[in-house]
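User: My instructor asked us to take a sequence, write out its structure as tokens, and then describe one feature of it. I'm not sure where to start. Here is the sequence I was given:
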Amino acid sequence: MSATVYADTSLLASLYLRDRNTTQALAAVTAVARPLILTHWQHFELENAFQLRLFRRESTPADLATAEARLAEDLAAGMVVPVPLPFASVLPAARQLTARHTATVGCRAFDIFHVAAALHLRATRFLSFDARQLTLARAAGLRT
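Assistant: Let's start with the prediction itself. The structure tokens for your sequence are:
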């Protein structure tokens, strides 16, 4: 993989399910080289985000079916690439990021894990709507 983009779940959910950030998500993804990285963990978190949208009545079952079909199309087209992510391999970097930045940036564990995963996978770009996560990503040396 030459140029890879790591998008956190907030951006992915907005990319596949219409919300107030969808226009920005589409613009961000269009502006960067593809493909987007999708780990099994991100995929699980995205599935959970979709179900939360149902719970909150922000989306319908039909919306979810459309979103899942669009994700499957992007996977088949190579615009989104599934990649393995061994948790144990990422945890040391996540712990280092925690020790260096949590007290000053205020990141949550999942935010840190996203940044550590992007570093582990050698992502060329990191996309998110979370300001703290973006601050952490830049502090860790990722392009945002």
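For the description part of your assignment, you could build on this observation: Residues 5-139 form a domain with the Rossmann fold fold (CATH 3.40.50.1010). Try explaining in your own words what that tells you about the chain.
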